[in-house]
Amino acid sequence: MAHLLGAERLHLEFPTRVVFDEVTLGIDEGDRIGVVGRNGDGKSTLLKLLDGRMTPDGGRVTHRRGIRIGTLDQADVVDPGKTVAEFVVGGIEEHVWAGDAKVRDVIAGLLGDVPWHGQIANLSGGQRRRVGLASLLVGDWDVVLLDEPTNHLDVEGIAWLAGHLKRRWPADSGALVVVTHDRWFLDEVCTDTWEVHDGIVEPFEGGYAAYVLQRVERDRSAAASEAKRQNLMRKELAWLRRGAPARTSKPKFRIDAANELIANEPPVRNKVELDRLAVSRLGKDVVDLIDVTVEFPVADAAAGAPETRTVLRDIEWRIAPGERTGILGVNGAGKSTLLGLVTGAVQPTSGRVKRGKTVRIATLSQELNELTEWAEQRVSAVVAEQRTSYQVGDKEMTPGQLLERLGFTTAQLSTPVKNLSGGQKRRLQLLLILLQEPNVLILDEPTNDLDTDMLAAIEDLLDSWPGTLLVVSHDRYLIERVTDRQFAILDGHLRDLPRGVEQYLELRRATDAATPTSSATGAPAAPAGASAPVGTGAAPLAGADRRAAEKELAAIDRKLEKLSAQIAEQHEKLALHDQGDYVGLGALGDVLRELEASVADLETRWLEVSESLES
Known about the structure:
The chain is an alpha/beta fold. It folds into three domains: 3-228, Rossmann fold, CATH 3.40.50.300; 287-513, Rossmann fold, CATH 3.40.50.300; 543-614. The protein is built from 20 helices and 20 strands. It has helices at 43-50, 84-89, 94-97, 101-110, 125-137, 155-167, 183-189, 208-220, 227-242, 252-261, 271-282, 335-343, 379-384, 399-405, 422-435, 452-463, 476-482, 501-514, 543-576, 582-614, and strands at 3-14, 17-28, 32-37, 58-63, 69-72, 143-147, 175-179, 192-197, 200-205, 287-299, 306-319, 324-328, 350-355, 361-364, 390-392, 395-397, 440-444, 468-472, 485-490, 493-497. The strands form five sheets. A six-stranded mixed β-sheet has the order 5-6-7-3-8-9, with helices on both faces. It has a six-stranded mixed β-sheet with strand order 14-17-18-12-19-20, with helices on both faces. The radius of gyration is 26 Å and the shape is globular. The two termini are 27 Å apart.
């Protein structure tokens, strides 16, 4: 594959630390790379070095001649003085850009609720972010660098973006590098993962699930000081294999290896024990919404007469002790209103809300207002004012131990709250809420400012929390990881989703297909047949074609298992062979390379056949 850009022996220092030291890497045609790592370790800085916005202190970055690089930064770079249309398509005539299927797809996928001729200055922060992303995606780029592109996108928007990036370039062309904490997105889009840590960039083959597997394998052979991190990643892997549908893009023999690795791992959550504890702490009654309807007044500017808008209608929801539920819905569907009914912040227009006498509700909100009063205090002092101990499962932990579990170092305990990073503030916010010992916990978009390692740590902490958990999030991985059932708000009604997020996306696609495309944005509607609905892909195989594909898949699995055994045997021969016999070693090495090349070809074919079956 053709080389696009590379970095050689990069060195970068900030006044207080070394960010990168001797980092060498390359990006080729067809690469789809996800970048993960702790907050502050240099993920965004790496993108800036690669596209030339930042110059390293040592080493160099090289670009192929004529290469076009498009970058989405975390910062808001849209021009508030322009209209949406001017910023996205510039001065291009409408009949020109409207005839481009890619441009129409981007506008429909990202700007459906954004006024096409409206001023950017009048948009919300989330809408501005999507305008910036749309402006980037309508361009033609050889390499696209995205820094947290899923921020401000809902579940549907994230699914659309994943589909767009997968079909944006032909196979083995173009390149994508994406920094994101959305683990479902990483698995869906990326074929390689770079972990940024301790001044280096460590490559892994595959998306997030494969990265977790390889990290577990690496950590198993690490020193005893890594035992804690290893156990957490093994638990994460146990969920990947046992929880939602398998996310690995590896063939069956690799899945078997993962299953063998976690054979002795206990379930992620002891549901029976958690339910028992929840009932003992909550009683049998939590919160019941009985035939609830919520309407809000809307002023009719034209007639001057008051009107009402029905947000939720005829809601029947009886929340059980220990229930772990995820709430899905588009922006404005009524998720916050539903949570307000549970907490008492919103009163129903009709129907009634019944709360148990022992219910204590706490909310982890999107804002960090809870920390304002402690801005000048040190972390250790803030925690010392709270409880002296906290029960986690069957273990009693001090607040300091909880802080350590949530990634705080000893040095950070003496840091003033105002000087903490966004991710550290979010972790402290969660800890302070848990120390209040609520028995109903509401998480409203809890993944903001958190990296993948810290998300895994928080999920691990929530696994042993024996209360009722309600989660509103656009992070599909989190929803599937920490909740046992999902509901969706569709047209004001609360609908159970036995098949989870995938069923929700199917319902939304069906709704969109049944609704004629409007020109609310001012942009022309795409003609029928111009592009397939988001996420539908190619027509699924059926009948004889499907049976043939399944048969081929099984045959590939058998061949890969056989080749895996032959590769292991060849490695053993190399180890036992006379190390002074260079000719013999060369011949054995040639055989090994041929076997590995065969495996690579078969894995590629395995993925192609799997995708045809899953379409």
